[in-house]
Amino acid sequence: MQDLKPGDLLETAKALQGSLALDTTHIGTSSHRVYSDELFGPSLGQESLLEIQDLINKLDSILPGIRIKERLMEKLKESASAQAVVDFLAENGHLNARVLELFRASKVARISLDESLKDTDGLNLISDDLFFVFSKPNSFRSLTTLSLDGLRLRTPMLTHIQHLPRLTILSLFDAGIDNEAIYLLVPLRYTLADLNVASNPGIDDDAVPALLMLTGLLYLSIAETSIGMAGARRLVKDRGGKRTLIDLPHSCHEYVETMDRKYFIDPKPPLITDPSLCCRLSVAALKRNLSSHAAVNRDIPTGGTKKEMVQRLEQLLETRLADLEVRRMIRYPDQDDHEMKKMKKEERL
Question: Domain of life, per the record (predicted)?
Fold first, then answer.
């Protein structure tokens, strides 16, 4: 073995120190990148053509064997953006947890998971990992529209979308949800303006308190749920005059269409319409008012003590006012978007 001089040892130590420092720097940079991606998601920068191409290359490695790169390059000839990529992936059912991770820091505004989370037999293929992506820090800060139609969600999954800061439109049509799910949406009360929970029979009148907390709603679909007229009346009565267009269940539509057979809809003076005036009426006036309603609905009694007649007329007039408000807020299938646009404009003012 060759003898080493003190100077040689010193040079060797310096070389080793430099090598270790270089390795440490490399490890530090790698760790920082991993930490940054976990905290913010992979950056897409300004979504330049090069950045979109890099994104497509990553997708090609995540989704092998389906010619995703070739298909996307053809699709994006006219316009290349993260949103266009997501739209393509959504339409073709290619969104999964690993794919969504790539878009956490993007400017994507809308995502539909309808096709990606069910197979050709309509079976539920949802994993908790997919929804967990939405709850990671700083994720999908530009997302305004999310569609989860036709899925069979497990209620706790909705906790992962509670803090999306700009979520405005949420569709949970036929998603197998119940009242508990509506309460999990309350954290979105300031941003959510359009909510579709139609075709979920597990939702009934007990969900109304949670729906009332969604103070930003301009449109609500509760068609084909188990919410009845009692719940519908409370929805409109307790919103403090705030206007919301509502798609109601068929049973409520049937009731509204037959209101003219429930009571006298349009009484004129000296008949009253204000429930608070009932206690001031004489017995004769009470009978006259009750008789006008009994003329269209024989089930309404016109006799009894004065106290009984006051209570009966008060309840009838309160129901009438609530029903008229429900009718005013119903959104019919043939109604155009003019009313909705008008309401959104008023909301901004």
Answer: Eukaryota
